[in-house]
Amino acid sequence: MFRYIVKRLLISIPVLLGVSLVAFFLVQASGDPMAIYVSNPNISSEDLIRLEKTYGFDKPKAVQYFYWLRNTLKGDWGQSFLTHQDVFTMIGERLGNTLILMFTSLLVTLTISLLLGIYTATHQYSFSDYFVTGFSFFGYAMPTFWFGLMLIIIFAVKAREAGLPYLPAAGMYPIRGDRNFGQLLLHLVLPVTVLSLSSVAKYTRYLRSSMLEVISQDYVRTARAKGLSERVVLWRHAFKNAIIPLVTLVMLDIPFLFSGALITEQVFAWPGMGRMYWEHANWVDYPVLMGIILLVSSLVVVCNLIADISYALIDPRIRVDG
Amino acid sequence: MTESTTALERLNGQQKNPPSIWGLALRRFLRHRAGVIASAVFLLIVLIVALGPLTFVSYDAAFRPNPLLVNNAPSAEHVLGTDEVGRDILARLIYGGRISLTVGVLAMVVALSVGTILGATAGYFGGVVDSIIMRFTDIMLSIPGIFLIIALSVFFGPSVSTIVLAIGLLNWMTVARIVRSMFLQLKEQEFVTAARCVGARNARIMWTHILPNAIAPLAVAATLSIGSAILTETSVSYLGLGIQPPLPSWGNMLKNAQDVIWSAPWVATFPGLMIFFSTLCINFMGDALRDALDPRMKL
């Protein structure tokens, strides 16, 4: 087991290096960061050349990459061209907000899809089974941001017009008033619903089919034959095995969760990292863009690692040697 | 006992009237009711979008701003209302559909081509080539696509071709994995050895002998990827970095909608419905196609 973990850790290093390489050249290709200064009439062409020198833009791209890599590894993530703040601090301020959104959504998603998945698997071909399966197709096809807009129309705009209690449609806290936990929860309702919808659809379907597969196995029949109660059979015998593939799936879906979070943050003006990425992308503020991409990808790589390892831990049938 | 008799009966039935593989596939497709309805609806959407501008939709209604008609609610004259500069929303939906659906299909073609070539090469040659390509696939899978699409479309100046390439080039990984695993399985089979014995070259074995066997999963993946490409295009356009106005797409029609969401909610409603229904139809079609072509395949 130990060797397996070490091996997987070693593999993820070149993957992360590759990510940084791909990201660097794509982001670099995405434009000239000096454009901010070129449009500024107070900066002369000599200043421009001097600035290029200080930032190292006069060097070949490959050299720039190694400078950037060296500094990043040393913990110096550079300064934003736009705000001149330290990138590490900037990301640190926003990352928490994104993670709040993502984890709440993950929690909600898992709770709902576990309940629905098991219910539909134990009530196969019932009306509610068809209903949930139909719903999962809807969840798949729903454009995230539009679903958000519709929720805003219904629960913020229309509810307010009708004089009913309404939900906040933007931000993390009210502009005026207390910044307390209750307000945060209230502001989380709509974004979390939006972010959870498609994964609830996906995991429910997935869990349903893996539950059905497990239920039809011999050892479940044996458990029933022994006279165990249906509840014990379901939760102790079937559920444990049905959930294994879900662990991997959730971990592998983390990149989509980040993508979804970016769009959700945009719709609900959530002050997260994705929104910051979008704001700075317009200015080719590449220290910020690179910092965010690298951080997000590292999280993804770590999650994949966790998926592989936990998979090997939960299921002894998986061969870990070699 | 019962199982064997039914199998025998089925066998007898088949011998009486042997249907072709495609006939069987068609029959299975038609049995998937949702898939059939979805295909019909999708065909209707495609026809309206393709033929509308040639017949009943005027260019002016879709593109010329009209200060007298700003944010009008749906009425007999403007069935779906007008937007924030007074353009007819129905007309823009139809023009926008041309863009959004085209982007979806073309991005699928790009993703399918890249994925097939890389996956086939990795699976067929194996060894170092395989490791390099699959590590590259891992790398691309580790970066959430939308982050790179945003960066790319900022630079290349957002346009239809940029967005097609960006979406296509960041979504080939699933296809590559499917094709690779098919090739790994198939390259060991006798017909490949036979082909090699009669002197067929690698390229010929790959493209004319092995690839046709991978058509079923590829067709399903291709169909489903049109849906996800449409969703991606509309999200990026909604963020303001995809298709640029005045050219309408279902996504960028929603971009300004959020500003008028309090006063004119219909502006936000209909483009989203079109995205939703098109994607829904495509997903059902993919599902039916999976049942038809490869009954053993699962999610």
The outline of chain A comes out as flat
The H-level CATH homologous superfamily of chain B, spelled out, is MetI-like
Helix content of chain A: over 70%
Number of domains of chain A: 1
Oligomer: heterodimer
The radius of gyration over CA of chain B amounts to 23 Å
The level-1 CATH class of chain B: Mainly Alpha
Low-confidence stretches of chain A are none
What gap, in angstroms, lies between the N and C termini of chain A? 10 Å
Helix content of chain B: 55-70%
Report the total helices of chain A.
14
Largest interface: A-B, 52 and 49 residues
- Percent of residues in beta strands of chain A: under 5%
Shape of chain B: globular
Under CATH, the topology of chain A can be stated as: MetI-like fold
Number of strands of chain A: 0
Class per helix and strand makeup of chain B: mainly alpha
Task: Give structural notes.
- The complex is a heterodimer of chains A (322) and B (299).
- Chain A is an all-alpha fold.
- Chain A has a single domain, classed as MetI-like fold, CATH 1.10.3720.
- Chain A has 14 helices and no strands.
- Chain B contains 13 helices and no strands.
- The longest helix of chain B is centred in the middle third of the chain and has 37 residues.
- Chain B starts with a helix and ends in a 6-residue tail after the last helix.
- At the A-B interface, α1, α6, α7, α8 and α12 of A face α6, α7, α12 and α13 of B.
